[in-house]
Amino acid sequence: MQLINTKSVVIPISQSSLEKNTNGKLYGSGRTAIIFSNMDTNDQSEWLPIVNELISEKHMILTYDYLQHMDDQSRTLEDAISFVKTSGAKRIVLIGASRGGVASIKVAARSIDNDCIVGVVALSAPISYEGFVFYNNDELCKIRIPKLLINSESDDGADDTRKMHEIFIEPKETIFFPGDAHGTELFAKERESLVGKLKDFIESVSVN
Fold first, then answer.
1. pLDDT in tens, 157-167
2. Labelling 200: which of 32, 45, 93, 194 has CA 20 to 30 A away?
3. DSSP conformation class of 116
């Protein structure tokens, strides 16, 4: 792993009436920021296997905590985006797993006029959960930036991944791995392949 400055950070939260800040970890610096959004485990450390592989002098990486247990964490992600922008980021890549993938897709759909978000990656992100639909077809069609969907062939949400791929407009790509690993569980067996794909994706959307 490269010797990149890493520090604990406090992220101001504008959406919650209960707490004013949440905790995060910022790796490196640069004009491109990669924001990792957690699964429902809300455990930043689950990203470490690939954060350590993706660390670069070219960009900063942010992981952060959710404050409350909610299915929709997209407002917290928006505050994380504001934080990296104040830290100097001009381009932002959103990467989320499961619940964090939902947040990343929702923010990308709302940010059609926000050109700082240049790419979105979702691992095992569902379209709906326990009857609650996170986004409709029109919202998914609004996402014009490059999109990368990743899942396992036998994950419970694999059909949602396939449906999203059909709905998304280009540019888009979907990758399925064997097995039933969900979200960051994929790192256990597929880390090398995942890291290679993520490096290529980040490089492709970070030009200019």
1. 999 999 999 99
2. 45
3. T
